[in-house]
Every structure is written in C-alpha cells, then in structure tokens.
C-alpha cells in the first residue's frame, strides 16, 4: 500500500468514526499541513464544517457550538503557532466542562527539532488542560482500525466524567491530498466502534436516608444553584425546594430564572441583600445545599466565608470535583443532581410547604426587586439596559453574557421570567477574550441569540465578527460602552489616580460603527430608552449582525450601583422594623 492509500484510509476512517460516535460539527482553520483532515471532514456528508480564518476566534466559535449542542465539536488547524492560538478557548473549555476534540496537524517525526519551517513542539502542548492526549502514529500500512479506535476513544474521553477538551496530534507526511475514490475508504465493510454505555451515579437508600434525617432536623436550610447547564435540574430542584419549604438562591447561569418551572421559591436578588452587613446575620442559614459551580456573586462568597463555622455546607456534583473557592470545608455529594433531588423529594409527600424562613426570604426578595426595577431617569445606565433587554428577549432564545460587569449586572437586574431562555457565559476562566465568537457559535445552528458585553470585550474579539458576515449568522449584540474597564472602578486601584486610567481604566477611544459595518453588520448607537427598546425590537426582526451601542459613564456607573444597593438595604430594614 503506497503513501496516498495509507493516508486516505487513515483519515477517512478516523473522520467517519467521529461521525459515527456523534460528532456533527467541525471548525476548520485553513492551512497546508492539515489538508488531509480538512478535506476529509469537508467530504463527509454527516458532519457540518465551518471555516474560520482566525484560530483564536475559531476555537471560541467551536466552544460556543459545543455549549449549544451539548456534544463534542472537532477543531482543526495546521502546524506551528496556529495551535497555540487555541490555548485560551481550551482553558475555558476545561474549566467550564465543554467537550472539544482538538486535532492539530504536525510535521512528521523526522522534521521535528531540526529547524523545519512552521514546526514547533506540539507534544502535549496544552498540558493539563487536555483531559486526554495522543501523538498519533504516521498514517502507514493498514492501520485504519487504529485510527478508528483513537477517534472513538477521543469522543469517550471528551464526554466521560466531567466533560472537557481532548487533543490528538497528527504527524503527516507529504503529499497531503487524500484519494477518496479508493476502495476501502469510509465505513464500507468495516464495523464501526460503538459508544460505551454509562449510567448515572445514584446514592444508596441508606445514605439518602441519612441526608433526609439531617436536613429534617434543621429549619433554616438554603438551596443554592450556581452556573450549570443541565436543563432537567430546574424542575427537580424546584420540586425539592417546594417540599422542603426552602428558598433557592438562583445564579443567573443556573437555568432557573427563566423557563416554565415553578419559581415561587426562587430568590434572584440575594446578591443585593447580602451586600448589606446589617442583613447578613438575619439571613444566615443552618445548612446550604449547593448545585453547580460557585455563584457569580462576590457578596455571597464573602457571606459564606463569614458564617462558615455555623453553617453545614453540602455540594452536589455528578462526578468527583472540588469546586469550592471560598476555602470552607464542605461535604461533597458525588451523585447525579437530578436523581438526588428526585430521590430526596420523594421522601416528602407535600408540595408548597410554607415556613417563616422561606417567607422571610421571599418578602426581602420582593422588596429588593421593587427597588432594582424602579423606573430609571433619562440617562442610560447598565442596570436598566439589562432590564429592558430581558423584557425584549424572544422566547426560545439564547442570552449570552460577557464577563466583568455585564454578568454582574445580569445577576442584579435579570428577574425571573416564564420565557424559555438559555443564559450562557464563559465562566470557566472568566476571561473577556473570545466572547463574540463563543456567542456566534451558540447562534450558528439557528437559535436566536443575544450577546451582552462591554466595549473592551467587544474589541478583544472583533475578528470573530467575520464568521457572522461569512456565514450570515444573525446575532444581536448589545455593547455597553463606558470607554474602558468599568469593573476596575469598584476596586482599590481606582483610588490611585496617577496610574488608574492608563493601567486599569484603559479607555479605547475608538468608534465601533465602522468596525461593525466592515463586517456587514448594522450599527445603532442609542441615546435614550425609547430608542434602545426600538432598536432591540428591530434587531430581532433582522436576520443579520445587529450591534446596539449603549454609551454610559464609568463614574456614574459606580454611583448608580451603590445607590441601588443602599435603597435595597433601606427598604428591607424599614420593612423588617414594621414587621417586628
């Protein structure tokens, strides 16, 4: 068998096995050494291929696709520094538990470390951020079943346990053009490798009874749901809360604030309540039962640390993990969260249990909500940009949220809604890079998507807009433009005027409109609330890139938020005094 035959058999069986194992999308960045893989993916009828010219944006686009589809997405690049540009998205995928299959083309072994062009050391280059790594064999002889085994295992490793990225490095010799007409390519007479069967981890009846007995002894329990993506959890955890008479502190990325499930026990405004030192002690629970990652709220984290010694903490995760950045000593429960909630709720026959503890949280939450939603003045602000956006979001749509201040404003101002909206963000590493591309990836398969982010984050990933133009992907982007890094105004650095603007404020001083127009989008800068709501409505009628720019003032931003938190504290304390 000659080289072309060996190459063709190897890559066709590898790609075909990925398709058989459930991979439906691949993102390709053009290059020469990756030719065999790129052409084979493009030739396969069961896999959608997306071509992106910028590797960093391409990797984040693949991340968004995988988030939306909740299944592995393949990613291909040529040799050299192309693969290095994948690094930020792979770090994010690792920490946010998103399955990616990274396929990097490489020079063959004889061209490594000898000064060959476009050859760097790609061996295990993503280190611990890849769940599994293989430097594959050279495609030679009849090793197509080896290729299938590696492809099948790549999918299994990406989805087994906590999902995440895997990396396969392909040493490829020239010539690089496969021959798809050869007999024996693709599936043909070869029997594909079937997926492994995996079950959910469920607690024993004895262990479950011990938790039921422990929780039953204490009245002041809290359920906390942080960022997580399991859409089945909402119904299960709200049923459990209803039967235990417990409040649920629901992070904006918990998938609990939006949807048709019961929301009577959901507390959205806990961040504002816990910012008040005068309220913190009265809200301290006996125990906390947490699902998902640590919530976005920094006030919650500090509150947990303050009352660590008097609160029993339980963290439920479907596989072994230690996501507890508060530094407390929790009890870990490694079991399927949905099954755990259902099993525990089945021990409690009554729904809609009312307790004074639950009523206290609900009343405070309603008082806080009233203050947060008070009609704004004429000047634009970040808070009501979120309020009006949440009211405008279409049903059955995605809401992707940038890091830094946008996710915190959503935490404060996005209230519960019956609309079926999936809220997403890159909260693994919490970076501001690649956000545009990730949002575009979630929108690529046709689901209406809105992105809220700041001006610096928009600037970081303007190359990502090329995919919107090239593939005509509709996306509404709301850019909060306060000309710099707004979150630093809340930090101690803001007191050092000599260096603050240059090192932290970092004003961009650029016009966004020409950049949007360069990528074929519509740009609308709004000056008042009526124009803002009109622009939102128009964007959802438009099947293209639509960028709405909301200009605000960083100094006003800090004052606005502090005034809101103060009004929440005063309203709740006033109510508490009357209630006493």
Automatic annotation (TrEMBL):
Pathway: Quinol/quinone metabolism; 1,4-dihydroxy-2-naphthoate biosynthesis; 1,4-dihydroxy-2-naphthoate from chorismate: step 2/7; Quinol/quinone metabolism; menaquinone biosynthesis. It catalyses: isochorismate + 2-oxoglutarate + H(+) = 5-enolpyruvoyl-6-hydroxy-2-succinyl-cyclohex-3-ene-1-carboxylate + CO2. Pfam families: TPP_enzyme_C, TPP_enzyme_M_2, TPP_enzyme_N. Residues 191-401 form the Menaquinone biosynthesis protein MenD middle domain. Its EC number is 2.2.1.9. HAMAP family: MenD. Belongs to the TPP enzyme family. MenD subfamily. This is 2-succinyl-5-enolpyruvyl-6-hydroxy-3-cyclohexene-1-carboxylate synthase. The gene is menD.
